[in-house]
Design a protein that fits this description.
alpha/beta; about 50% helix; Rossmann fold; 2 domains; Arc Repressor Mutant, subunit A; single chain; 9 helices; two-stranded antiparallel sheet
Length: about 180
């Protein structure tokens, strides 16, 4: 599905984007508007829940981790207010447990960042029976490892010793990994 046309989207083209990264939110909003969606943006869980309650959209893209809480709280409100809303959960911290939680709560799909507007549009418009196509440029094994280490590091409040203990890794080895740039 290279180009989206308005028939693919349907009559109700309302789309809620919830992400605390303002630059990403603006870029994604413009890209989704070009694809025919009527976009409304929220930069926090509170704003996302308010919009979901007042004007439940037909589609939503929600970041999992937001400054003021968990994006799954917005997904729950969307499911209560509009059961047919197609929701894609985005996160920079891809993990099986959070993917399962997102789908159980009612997310249509779950994508790891960086996801582009085409990936998101395809996920929003995919029918339930279709299997997603394999990614065109998947993360390398080194990048997946680095992302996992970063996620655990953040969960340990950036405490190197605690992160090293949880990863069963020597503290100095972890410090060297954290000092390097992220792999591609």
């Amino acid at each position: 599905m290279a180009e989206t046309n308005l028939q693919d989207i349907g009559e109700d083209r309302s789309l809620l984007l919830v992400d605390d990264d303002e630059a990403f939110l603006r870029r994604l909003s413009k890209a989704m508007e070009k694809r025919g969606f009527e976009v409304e943006m929220a930069g926090s869980v509170a704003a996302g829940k308010a919009i979901a309650t007042a004007r439940p959209p037909a589609y939503a893209v929600v970041d999992l981790r937001l400054d003021d809480g968990n994006g799954l709280d917005v997904v729950e409100v969307l499911r209560e207010r509009r059961g047919d809303c197609r929701v894609v959960v985005l996160t920079g911290y891809g993990a099986i447990a959070t993917a399962v939680a997102a789908v159980k709560i009612g997310a249509t799909d779950y994508l790891s960042k960086p996801a582009d507007a085409t990936d998101i549009t395809n996920a929003l418009l995919r029918s339930g029976d279709e299997l997603p196509p394999p990614p065109e440029n998947p993360m390398s094994a080194d990048r997946v490892r680095w992302e996992h280490i970063q996620r655990v590091y953040e969960l340990c409040d950036r405490n190197v010793s605690e992160t090293a203990r949880r990863l069963n890794m020597h503290r100095r080895t972890l410090q060297r990994i954290l000092a390097k740039r992220s792999p591609r």
